[in-house]
Amino acid sequence: MNRVNTNRYSFIPLFNLFKYKNNEISLVRLLQKIGLPTGGILLFLFFWSVAAQNIDTSLGKFPGPTEVFNQANSLVAEHQAERLRETEFYQRQQQRNADKLAKDPYADIKTRPYTGSPTYFDQILTSMITVLSGFILASAIAIPLGVIIGLSKTINAALAPVIQIFKPVSPLAWLPLVTMVVSAVYVTDDPLFAKSFLNSMFTVTLCSLWPTLINTSVGVANVNSDLINVSKVLRLSWLTHTRKIVLPSSIPMIFTGLRLSLSIAWMVLIAAEMLAQNPGLGKFVWDEFQNGSSNSLGRIMVAVLTIGFIGFLLDRIMLMIQQRVNWDRHADIR
């Protein structure tokens, strides 16, 4: 009988239950893995519902779980309606062009893109693309630079003050500078990327690269001395020493930095989108706040929960990748 390889899904607590034999699945383990998280969520929903009924704002009652659920459904309905309008737009355009060609085979045919308003799910997709672009760019800078800093005490001494000065700078301070630099440098009649995307991406990069840089340099600097001696005895080249000894030994620290960087990148992006009014979830929240309708608070709460869920999902994905690439299969990674 084929058995499900639960190791592939070990980052999901539920799947870990099935790694054990049936007689080992106890009620206590089931309670710990499923019962306690479910109980915690239900308790949170209860207190949220009670507190919401007792909070009056200028826009009405603070939204409880039921109101937020209804607003989430309305956002789904708006997205479906917008996609339907887009489909009908392209169908009408295709039919109009076909009629033109039927009358005149040499007619000048123009195809116009649909310019409808972005839906809530479009904003989520925009934020995801932006944060992953900024995070990948930050990682591409931080990991090689961290390795170099970790291998050289001289470079570490030279760059440590710079890193410590720029590390705590808020995205709200970086954003005006990034916006001005992008506007001055990125001047073209046919832009490949929107300036709003570049502003958000570079702000995310500047704020999120530090945890990966510092953790990588610390991991490289603390490679086991026995492994260093083996490398010296074998007379490995610098590149081979880095590839065979340094990087595998530093993977746990590198991934710790990557997970911290990704969570910071996600938080920074939302703030940057709100401040600069760049497309994404942050702009959605700010627009709803400015809208001031009776549904606004419920929609903002939907966005808050979405932001939290996506942040949790991104961290789980990074954890799964770490479990895949980590050489120590017995390490307790959480």
Automatic annotation (TrEMBL):
Q: Where in the cell is it found?
A: Cell membrane
Annotated membrane-spanning segments are: 34-55, 124-151, 172-188, 200-224, 245-276, 296-314
Report membrane topology: Multi-pass membrane protein
Q: Name one GO biological process term.
A: transmembrane transport
Q: Which GO terms describe its cellular component?
A: plasma membrane
* UniProt superkingdom: Bacteria
| Database matches in InterPro entries | MetI-like (IPR000515), MetI-like_sf (IPR035906)
Q: Which Pfam families match?
A: BPD_transp_1 (PF00528)
Supply the alphabetized keyword list.
Answer: Cell membrane, Membrane, Transmembrane, Transmembrane helix, Transport
ABC transmembrane type-1 domain: from which residue to which, for each copy?
A: 124-318
| Similarity section | Belongs to the binding-protein-dependent transport system permease family.
Q: Tell me what this protein is called.
A: ABC-type nitrate/sulfonate/bicarbonate transport system, permease component
Q: Which organism is it from?
A: Gynuella sunshinyii YC6258
